[in-house]
Amino acid sequence: MSGAYDENGERDEGAEKDAGDGGGAYDGPGRAPRIPLPRVSVEDGGRPLPAVEPAAPLALEHHVLTSLLGAWALAACSPEEAAAVEDHLGECGACAEEALRLRDAVGLLQRPESLDLDPGLRTRVLDGCLERRPPRIPVPEWAAPYDAETARLDALLQDFGDSEWHAPVRLRWFGDDGTASRRTTVAGVIAHLLTVDGLVGVALGLPDPLGEITAHAPAPAGRTEAYWRASHYPPTRAVRAPWREQSHAIVRTVAFTGGTGGTGGGAGRMPVSYGDFELPLRDAMLDRAFECWVHAEDIADAVDYPYEPPSPRHLNRMIDLAARMLPGVLAERRRAGLAASAGGRHLVTAGEPGRSLRLEIEGSGGGEWLIPLDSPAAVGSADLEVAHVALDGVEFCRLAAGHVPPAEAAAGQVGDREAIRDVLFAAASLSRM
pTM value? Predict the structure, then answer.
């Protein structure tokens, strides 16, 4: 007599019902079926699904199977062909070795896909939301890159463990005698961003992150060194919270004071002191966005994690800032005897056209800029163009960050060689710790 019983010898009606419902193959009293039967569907008219017999492997000759190895490695065979090839690989050592080589080659052809979101996704989502419901207090356009880059870096940091926070990072920049560097950690980099972003915060009336710490120099490097020295222990993950709170406070404050103008009117002209030079607030925010991205890449390299460039619109603004700063840097290098081009022999009245270099930035965020060579007050002129340099957008930014030596920048160059050299070295001189 068939049936199911509990441990006291009583009939287990539930188990009998389960066994009789077609829910699975009977596997002993009180046990769930090891191999469930196909469920009965309404669409099947209440009848069980027919069993599918596996297809028999194809009987193919050796030379045919050998010719299918490439298609098998690319997963382009039919199921029957794939089954025949795999059966053959268990018997033929020569074909198995060839199949392994082909499968490895296919792996090299496929680009690894990043798990990170597209850096432009945040901007597109915000744009779509703001089209439906404009904010009562919008963030100025010139502050949007800083808002986006700090959010991206914070997303990278959120899952870091202690080992990642103490991973070694080498900060690099270009000095007059070549490439300079400073060794720190991931936490040290965030401390650096905290102290230098503080220059913008102080200009906006926010508390100085240095507090009572006195810096020997008000420049970014001096503030960072003072913060590092004042710490009894190397910076840890605890530095993330004050950095992120300060970045939120900066964006919130410029939203209240900066207005909606995309040209940076009003509060956008407020000077921000970097010690030995000043930038208007709108440019200081772009500068901080640029450095946040550059150091985020430094951090990502230290922990072996992929990190994408900014969205094209924001990257274009960062490149534009660097291009606008180049004439002033050229003049400073000329006064220091570091520029070789014939500046000074071509006197140009302020506001008048002068000799120019065409800077063409290719790829994402690109464009063209005419860089006046003889005076920062001159106007770039296509009629007086003496040289043309073409660079990829990300390559130019890495040059401006001091991560690529000027002599190694992958640039297309035509025209006055001295002018080209001076502009490339001036771009690298924009970098600092």
Answer: 0.69
